[in-house]
Amino acid sequence: MEARIESAICPGCACLCDDIDVTVVDNRISLADNICLWGASKMFSHQRFHPKKERRRLQQPQIKHRGRWETVVYEDAVNRAAEILSQARKPVIYGLTNSGCWAQEAALTLARRARARLEPADLDFKAPYYQSLMKYGLRWAPLEMIRDEADTFLFWGANPLHSCPRHVVRYSVFSRGRFTERGIEERRTAAVDLHRTELAEFVNIFVQIEPGQELALLEGVRRTVSGQKPTRPVRGVRRLANLLQEASYGVIFFGRGVSYGPTEELLDGLAALTVELNQKAPAILFPLSADFNSVGLYHLLLRELGSPLAPDFSGDTGCSFCAEPVRLQDRDALVVCGADLFWFLTLEQISDLKRRRTPVVVLSPFANRSAGHADVVLPVALAGVEVPEIAYRMDGLPLCLPQLVSSSLPADSQVLQDLAKAL
């Protein structure tokens, strides 16, 4: 049986593109138009950078017993995971930026019941951003307004071709908007990065800096924009300042690259620069989120707890909030959902977890590094493909993701709810 689904929403990244036309044959997606590699990695289970290689799906719950994997029924895996959480004194629930809103709400409930810390996967560069946002009161705009009106873009520590590939086509550099009908021909673009990226091929200005020069470059641009002389000579200051000063509507996109340096100082400086630019023309500081529902998690934390920082329910005084990434050596149990924690850990951190025999519970639709180091693996269905979900686009627009195909696997929200009930 064949079915055609038009204008489906793609959960590949935080752009949540809504122009995907999908053909389903016998409960399997056979064709998807307008899709990028990130979307194909979800809908066709391909590897992002190797589209001809498939990503292995997890099919059965497993428990590691005496160093060997044992396939068990779903209830036994949930009970074992609940036992790990109940015995832990300072557990952490990590990830959730690649989970839907219902799963995030269930994870927050589980964190409260298990007296755990809830750690967003991108806390290292999102928490300082929200702190700067509250400090300076910056303006905001939906992606459609940016596409229609913005004529100047600066990418700082961000490579949209690797985080949200269709962003440059739909909303920024190459997009044709209401007042920017000629696309890139009417725009000025620049990028700042530690490494030469693909952006260097088409932006007007590409500034490759050495590690440790970020603050000096940013301070020089700020002083030049405000009419002062830079205190330190850094290559690219004058060109970047001129580009930003000539903007009639400017946007500074930043990505995870800012977390490789002094993150708090960088984001505070970028926010201050945005305030300075707003005195002459509209300017926006905008985070480029790769994971499809990162914004939804911070909306949940702000709505329920009043803070975008990581909530920790393990203390005796109730809930405390943390801006710094979690210290895993202080934690005695890990639950990973909607992220691949072990992809970002160093060999020393992994060795420390093994030495202390820290139990790990992983909820994932795919086999990944975290699942390989787990004590309990719970396969889940793909949110927005195999089960319906709700997600927030990178500009904060909530969207309903319909089910495209069916699956026998449970949704991650259901697994998290069952975990909370089993405690």
From TrEMBL:
<keyword id="KW-0560">Oxidoreductase</keyword>
<dbReference type="GO" id="GO:0003954">
    <property type="term" value="F:NADH dehydrogenase activity"/>
</dbReference>
<dbReference type="GO" id="GO:0022904">
    <property type="term" value="P:respiratory electron transport chain"/>
</dbReference>
<dbReference type="GO" id="GO:0018493">
    <property type="term" value="F:formylmethanofuran dehydrogenase activity"/>
</dbReference>
<dbReference type="GO" id="GO:0015948">
    <property type="term" value="P:methanogenesis"/>
</dbReference>
<dbReference type="GO" id="GO:0016020">
    <property type="term" value="C:membrane"/>
</dbReference>
<protein>
    <submittedName>
        <fullName>Formylmethanofuran dehydrogenase</fullName>
        <ecNumber>1.2.99.5</ecNumber>
    </submittedName>
</protein>
<dbReference type="InterPro" id="IPR050123">
    <property type="entry name" value="Prok_molybdopt-oxidoreductase"/>
</dbReference>
<dbReference type="InterPro" id="IPR016457">
    <property type="entry name" value="Formylmethanofuran_DH_bsu"/>
</dbReference>
